[in-house]
Amino acid sequence: MIRFEGVSKRFGDGAFAVENLDLEVSEGELCVLVGPSGGGKTTILRMVNRLVEPTSGRVLVGGRDVAGTDGVELRRRTGYVIQQAGLFPHLSVADNVASVPRLLGWDKARTRARVGELLELVGLDPAQYARRYPHELSGGQAQRVGVARALAGDPPVLLMDEPFGAVDPIARERLQQEFLRLQAHLHKTVIFVTHDVDEAMMLGDRIAVLSEGGVLQQHDTPAEVLGCPATAFVADFVGADRGLRRLAVTPIEITDLYTPPVLSPGTTIERARAVVEAADGRWAVVVDDDGRLLGWVEPGRADAGAHATGDAAHPPGSDAVADHVRRLDAWVPLEGSLKSAFAEMLQHDAGWVAVLDDDHYVGILTPDALHAALRRSVGGDAVHV
So what's the pLDDT on residue 377? Predict the structure, then answer.
């Protein structure tokens, strides 16, 4: 856990870089610092490993005041990732990653094993990349090496200062997704600095919004920051389109889903009509015996034409549901967001999307359910400014 207790940092002219900051980052949490230039984000980050000393207040890591810890030792036990990776240009990828373990006195075998493990973890084949030098890497590859180096000594705390800001948008999105995967596996305590609101909302467990002069305006979950800005500054900073941004940070939950009738492919059309009419509906979902989604069927129109595949072996009058199943292209994984569901609806011009857990059907998300889920994420539409 990291705690900032009444922390301030003044410039020589008396102006504040950070003013009276009270902030707690729980163990295993990814806290994103976001705000305009001059908001003290990098200063806050660098006070954790004593690259910057506070003018007043205390910074505690794991319950210990960092002011009483040797700065060099503290930095060796703290992972640090900066923009453009900051790799040593004269060292190979393997030697860059190995730099901290060597400083910590690890033996060669342990260090070599750790380098290989981390390169694989960040998606770089050791056999292909270990002997390369930084100038032989793309920007995205270099950032992956930077993350691996920061993790090499297995630090409990990871500090990341605009780590993906210098790479192209496609590589940046891949790095963000890769880092989320790593964090889900490693559960490090992370402070992450960015100017990008969308990146903050995608990555953060909690968001700390700072105004110029290092004043904390709000510290909360992404959904709360977007749905209930605490101040006019926060509302303005996250933007007028914060409602759309909330889609990306609101997960799909089973309770959001509509459950139409479910039929097996061997059900007769006559029986299917009865089931659908009893549910006061017009259509049903079709799954196989293992719960895998096959498509959907509208029994009342089963005789209106051949089934969707156009297979001449199954004429319009066929009696089994399997012969009238329509393919369903619009679907999302259960672990997806409302944004991904909305995107599928738009892409396929669909009135609803199926939700799958792995390849098993769970339910249906409709536009009405999507809107209700969005309201649920912040307990309503109230925005406090």
Answer: 62
Give the domain extent around 297. 254-376
Longest CA span, the chain: 86
Q: What is the pLDDT of residue 373?
A: 79
Same domain, 115 and 80: yes
Structure tokens, 211: 């105004």
Q: Which residues contact 251 (CB under 8 A, 6 or more apart)?
A: 335, 336, 337, 338
Residues 278 and 230 in one domain: no
For 186-207, what is the mean pLDDT?
92
Q: Is-contact 83 25, C-beta < 8 A? A: no
pLDDT at residue 296 greater than cutoff 80? yes
Q: Is the pTM of this model over 0.90?
A: no
Q: For the CA atoms of 180, 194, 227, 210, what is the dihedral angle to 10 degrees?
A: 140
Q: Nearest 5 degrees, angle CA 324-CA 328-CA 331?
A: 155
Q: What single letter denotes the amino acid at residue 64?
A: R
pLDDT above 50 for 135: yes
Confidence band, pLDDT 50/70/90 cuts, at residue 178: confident
3-state secondary structure of 202: helix
Phi, psi of 184 (to 5 degrees): -65, -30
Task: Give the integer Cα–Cα distance in Å for 248 and 63.
Answer: 34
Angle at 240 between CA 337 and CA 181, to 5 degrees: 30
If one counts every other C-beta atom within 10 angstroms of the C-beta of residue 143, the result is 29
Task: Write out the two tokens for 378.
Answer: 């912040």
Stretch (H or E) spanning 86: none
Say how far apart CA 335 and CA 352 lie, in whole Å.
17
**End residue of a domain, out of 249, 273, 293:** 249
Reply yes or no on whether the pLDDT at 317 is more than 70.
no
